[in-house]
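Working notes for the structural subgroup meeting. M.R. asked for a predicted model of this chain before we commit to crystallization trials. I am recording the input and output together here so anyone reviewing the notebook later can reproduce the run.

Input as submitted:
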Amino acid sequence: MNIAHASAFILHQRPYRETSLLLDVFSEQYGRSSLVAKGVRNKKRNQSGALQVYQPLLLSWIGRGALQTLTHVETAEPRYILKAESALCGLYLNELLVRLLPLHEAEPGIFKAYQQALLGLQQEENTEVVLRLFEKRLLSHLGYGLVLNSEVENGLPIEGEQRYYYQPDSGLYRWQSHLKCGSISGRSLQHLLNESDFDQQSLQEIKQLMRTVIHYYLDGKPLKSRQLFAELKQYS
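Returned structure, recorded in token form:
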């Protein structure tokens, strides 16, 4: 495989051997890839400055198999500048992509949703809304789309004053008081379905819904970015 000038982002990087980096890359045409950037940590050949998260890039690479070799890098557009809480949100987006995207499968819809989310975070929009909409679009493009407008057992439409619970492998069920699982109002579901009219209550309920669904598709494995959020919140 010989890829030239693919629009891409670095999702994560880590040192490899003495002078190289291992990169998790997300490109518009080729999906998620694992690349080795050889020698970029060597002061005489320092290219690592461009290999930053939130930086739109044009990347070239060669190779076969799971790990391939970066051959060229150049910046495509100005870097998205994420500050304070928005920077943590960006790390969360990146970790979701690394954990949920398969290798070498093009996901142009997710790539567009990721760019929209970075722009929203840069413009310091409501971070909760940005994250929830990205999560919804990510799940939809991966084939795990949430069915939010009707009950799975009888097909009845969602009622704003009723409460429901969501089973990731099937859909929405009417919540009963004896159940131990969390619930969400039909009103909050309508906000998520329409992607509008969010308020503090609906955002909190939607956050818990998304956490449950994503936890299921991560096979119960924790996210490091969520742990970081919790630690910083406790510290503050």
